[in-house]
């Protein structure tokens, strides 16, 4: 079934990524959210995971 025929849930999924800028890693989400710049890549990934968890718990 083409995507245009799928029912619209009214919500877009929260797709998180981490990007690097110099020696900092930043978590970002498709909803526009961005976490703080972190020197630890692991901490940036945790920020992204916590954002996804918080959004799911709120819905």
Task: Please summarize what this structure is.
This protein has about 60 residues and is an alpha+beta fold. It has one helix and two strands.
Descriptive notes:
- The chain has one helix spanning 41-58; strands at 16-21, 24-29.
- It is of the alpha+beta class.
- It has one domain.
- A hairpin with a 2-residue loop joins strand 1 (16-21) and strand 2 (24-29).
- The radius of gyration is 14 Å and the shape is elongated.
- The protein starts with 15 loop residues before the first strand and ends with a helix.
Biggest sheet character: 2 strands, antiparallel
Percent of residues in helices comes to: 25-40%
- Count the DSSP helices: 1
Widest sheet: strand ordering:
1-2
User: What coarse outline follows from CA principal-axis ratios?
Assistant: elongated
SS class: alpha+beta
Give the end-to-end Cα distance, rounded to a whole number of Å: 27 Å
Percentage of residues in strands: 15-25%
* Overall number of domains: 1
Radius of gyration: 14 Å
Please provide the count of β strands: 2
Order of helices and strands: EEH
Low-confidence stretches: 1-8
Write the layout of secondary structure elements.
Blueprint (H helix, E strand, L loop, with lengths): L15 E6 L2 E6 L11 H18 L1
Antiparallel strand pairs: 1-2
């Amino acid at each position: 079934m083409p995507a245009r025929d799928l029912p619209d849930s009214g919500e877009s999924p929260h797709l998180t990524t981490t990007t690097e800028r110099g020696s900092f890693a930043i978590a970002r989400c498709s909803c526009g959210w961005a976490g703080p710049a972190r020197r630890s890549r692991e901490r940036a990934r945790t920020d992204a995971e916590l954002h996804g968890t918080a959004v799911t718990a709120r819905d």
